[in-house]
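Notes, p. 3: input format for complexes.
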Amino acid sequence: MTYQCALCPYKAKHKGYLTKHMLIHKDPSEVKTYDCSFCSYKAKVKGSLTRHMLTHKDASEIV
Ligand SMILES: [Zn+2]
Ligand SMILES: [Zn+2]
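Output follows (63 residues plus zinc ion):
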């Protein structure tokens, strides 16, 4: 059993993969992302942004 993308030839063995894949066909503005307020970094997972923010924090506190 494979899950076929309706918009491109992509096929997935798991429904979860297809769901994730479908995000690339969505308008970027519709996809929820966590944006860094200090740079152009964007994360799809909040944990990734939290971890990324540490790089800014370290840089400012070391000074
Ligand atoms: Zn597709
Ligand atoms: Zn940043």
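The chain is about 40% helix and 15% strand.
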